[in-house]
Amino acid sequence: MKKHPPKTPQKIVRAFERHMREALGLAPKTCQNHSREVSQFLDAVPVRNTSDLVALTPPDLTGYLTDRSAQCQPSSLQQIAGSVRHFLRFANLQGWIADPLSLAVPKIACRVAKGLPVYLSEQQLKLLLASWDTNTAQGQRDLAIGLCLARLGLRAGEVAALRLEDIDWRHGILRLSQSKNGHRAQLPLLAEVGQGIAHYLRKGRPACPCRQVFVFHQPVRPMHAQAISQVIRRALQACGIKVARSGAHLLRHTLASHLVQNGATLKEVADLLRHRHINSTAVYAHLDVRQLRSVAHPWPKEAAL
């Protein structure tokens, strides 16, 4: 068998990123995060080429994570450990290391601090969607953004990545080419959402070579996820609506919460939100009062003397 020369750290990381993208189907942002952490790991150990990987030992792994723990919160350290674990599995598959070193990466204890989802009431949502001045180009754009978030449950990054060719006007379909889970998806283009986007494209969007639907107007350039969230934050502030966690994801939580309150099952909500695991949707279970009542046991009566 032909023996290939050892790879440099840069080539190792590129091969790992290609594996995550092509074999595992991870989203570009996820691949970037893992690659960044693996680059730091290889630099700190240190690894100069693939030959050095053979010398890695479990104490090297625990020592590295111990050093990183001095600057990181437990949740961040948990993500770092996950990146290293993913990489070592890949290195084992490639034959760069003989032992399953990924099993030696310690589990990081991290208290789950997820609270109940924050969401708007139906009245607050109506107030928010009515707050944009559709006589202005920016107001038309911001309303269209708000409808994509509130009616379709899109993420900020998905709205920012939406391109003109992703909208199939003839068949009433909106295609998502960039999603958090790395999979393409199709959603029905609801009439209200389609009308909002069409109005912006016809009346408000400046002529430009950008293929992204939503753009900054001065100067004209594609919007990014942070800007999409900022649109919602500004509108909430203008409406006097105070919430613990504002931003684009608030409207995604609002859609899911309202659906559950109106009788939708968790499976139906999971499908709409494109959750890969039903556990991600379970946080909305407390809103299904009807189902909660059915599983609640009656308070035992005091036994007769």
Give a brief outline of the structure.
The protein has helices at residues 9-23, 28-44, 50-53, 58-69, 74-94, 122-129, 137-152, 156-161, 191-204, 225-239, 248-261, 266-273, 289-295; strands at 167-168, 173-176, 185-188, 215-217, 220-222. By secondary structure, it is mainly α.
CATH class of the largest domain: Mainly Alpha
Shape: elongated
Main sheet: strand order: 1-2-3
Low-pLDDT stretches are 292-296
- The CATH architecture of the largest domain would be Orthogonal Bundle
Structural class: mainly alpha
The total tally of domains equals 2
Biggest sheet record: 3 strands, antiparallel
Topology:
Blueprint: H1 9-23, H2 28-44, H3 50-53, H4 58-69, H5 74-94, H6 122-129, H7 137-152, H8 156-161, E1 167-168, E2 173-176, E3 185-188, H9 191-204, E4 215-217, E5 220-222, H10 225-239, H11 248-261, H12 266-273, H13 289-295
Antiparallel strand pairs: 1-2, 2-3, 4-5
What would you note in describing this structure?
Helix content is 51%, strand content 5%. The protein has 305 residues and is mainly α. The protein folds into 2 domains: 9-104, DNA polymerase, domain 1, CATH 1.10.150.130; 122-291, Intergrase catalytic core (hpI Integrase, Chain A, Orthogonal Bundle), CATH 1.10.443.10. The strands form 2 sheets. A 3-stranded antiparallel beta sheet has the order 1-2-3, with no helix packed on it. Helix 7 (137-152) crosses helix 11. The radius of gyration is 24 Å and the shape is elongated. Mean pLDDT is 86; it is low at 292-296.
Provide the descriptors you would attach to this structure in a database record.
single chain, 305 residues, mainly alpha, DNA polymerase, domain 1, hpI Integrase, Chain A, 2 domains, 3-stranded antiparallel sheet, two-stranded antiparallel sheet, 13 helices, elongated
